[in-house]
Write a structure and sequence with these properties.
Blueprint lengths: L1 H10 L15 H13 L2 H16 L13 E4 L2 E5 L15 E7 L2 E5 L5 H14 L4 E5 L5 H4 L2 H6 L4 E5 H20 L3 H4 L10 E3 L2 E7 L2 E7 L9 E5 L4 E9 L12 H15 L4 E6 L3 E2 H24 L21 H18 L5
Parallel strand pairs: 4-5, 5-6, 6-7, 11-12
Antiparallel strand pairs: 1-2, 2-3, 3-4, 8-9, 9-10, 10-11, 12-13
Bound molecules: zinc ion.
């Protein structure tokens, strides 16, 4: 029953090659276009284009995707927790979190979403709890699931899209590949309409403060390389609310990539922890709403454990091929453990080697 619903929703999104890249597929517009072609009436085709333009300016994309439910974290604070795995066709690429905070002057969204359709669907959920406009979007890092929804927010009038400088730079370099990956998964309907909005981002290096009205502010911070080169952390003082971006995971096994700097990640986490303290509500990059203690345990403590085990192996004269001997059985319960633990061990081992004090 549920699967059928998903399939129907997806069927509603399938676009013709022509519609790809134009913003959305609307059966009403498609019907008019088909009629215009059959009858050869240019005025009908023109009218269909007009309707499409108006709809796009108003942020209309098509069927709303069945995203995970909105979870209330605190007064005026909500999050949608994405899938605890990699991006797939079934999870629409939403394998991280989209969260928002309602301020007197408007809504702040953390994470642009993995594609315009997910961003649009999240926006429909936002509209159910507030009539205030979305005015600020902060992008958590350079990854596709943080950036490829940005064109939707731009199209509906959001002009304050914040991104850390390295994140913007790295995203620009990989944009074409990230969209292609969506297509390879069979998600053409979700990724075909995305545009690279990086040239419109408000970029910052170390920090940015967003005045969100009513004497309230959102603090954006950069604490150094970690899971990616440019991870953004956001803090809302009035709510003692911390968005860690990919500096923090809850429950889910961290995924260490070739570009991940596990050595600096520990240092960045320490800085973030010292800055935000323990008494904060945490919305991590992956996993549901959490606490500092929990996110520290699932991210930082894991990295420290792995580093210390790697150091023991190195002291025994062993090389990277021994890294997978590290006993990670205590983490076996975590989502994506099977897919990540060996790669994590090898990369962390190599990062430890690189940072050994020179004799
Ligand atoms: Zn991520």
């Amino acid at each position: 029953m549920k699967l059928r619903f998903v399939m129907t929703a997806l069927a509603g999104l399938i676009m013709t090659g022509e519609a790809l890249g134009q913003g959305y597929s609307d059966p009403y517009v498609d019907g008019m276009k088909a009629y215009a072609q059959e009858s050869g009436q240019a005025s009908v085709a023109q009218y269909a284009d007009e309707v499409q333009k108006v709809e796009r300016a108003n942020g209309y994309i098509g069927s709303v995707l069945p995203l995970p439910p909105l979870q209330k974290v605190a007064d005026g604070v909500y999050t949608i927790t994405g899938a605890m795995m990699w991006a797939t066709k079934e999870n629409f690429g939403l394998n991280n979190n989209i969260s928002f905070v309602i301020f007197p002057d408007g809504v702040f969204v953390f994470n642009a979403g993995p594609n315009p359709v997910v961003a649009y669907s999240a926006h429909q959920m936002i509209k159910k709890v507030t009539s205030k406009p979305v005015k600020w979007v902060a992008i958590e890092n350079n990854q596709g699931h943080a950036n490829l929804g940005a064109s939707y927010w731009w199209d509906v009038g959001v002009r304050n899209i914040y991104s850390q400088a390295y994140a913007t730079e790295d995203f620009n370099k990989t944009y074409a590949r990230l969209v292609e990956r969506g297509f390879e998964r069979g998600d053409a309907a979700l990724y075909g309409m995305t545009r690279n909005m990086a040239s419109n981002y408000t970029t910052f290096k170390e920090q940015a403060t967003i005045d969100v009205g009513g004497g309230e502010k959102v603090e954006l911070r950069y604490f150094g390389e970690a899971h990616t080169r440019g991870s953004t952390v956001a803090y809302i003082p009035s709510k003692k609310l911390l968005f860690t971006g990919d500096l923090g995971y809850a429950d889910r096994m961290i995924a260490v990539f070739p570009y991940t700097n596990t050595h600096d990640w520990m240092a960045a986490f320490e800085k973030m922890h010292a800055w935000a303290g323990d008494e904060v509500t945490v919305i991590p990059g992956h996993g549901g709403p959490s606490s500092m203690a929990k996110v520290k345990e699932d991210t930082y403590d894991y990295l420290v454990y792995m580093r210390d085990e790697a150091l023991k192996l190195i002291a025994e004269g062993k090389g990277v091929e021994a890294a997978t001997e590290i006993d990670q059985s205590q983490f076996e319960w975590r989502p994506v453990y099977a897919q990540t633990h060996e790669g994590n061990a090898r990369k962390i081992f190599n990062d430890v080697l690189r940072h050994l004090p020179k004799k």
